[in-house]
Structure formats: C-alpha cells, structure tokens
Amino acid sequence: MAPHLLGSEIEPSEELAFIQAVSKLSRIVRIFAPTSLRISSLFAEPLS
Prior knowledge:
Layout lengths: L1 H46 L1
C-alpha cells in the first residue's frame, strides 16, 4: 500500500504538468489557427 501511495503522490503532479502543457499548446493553436487559415485562404484565392 505504501508504494501505491507514493506513486499516487508523484503521478498527479506529472499529470498536472502534462495537462498544463497541453492547455498552453491548445491556447497557442487557438490563437494562431485563425490567422494561419486567413493567410492560407489569401494565398489560395489568387492561385485558384
């Protein structure tokens, strides 16, 4: 039981760090995705 408690103490902090990293990435994607779509549409219009 003791090793399990130790493991559960370590894992949540790692999970939290992972979740924070993912949320940061998704926030960055949410910010940059619309602008990149706008840029790609600007480039696609003259080509078509």
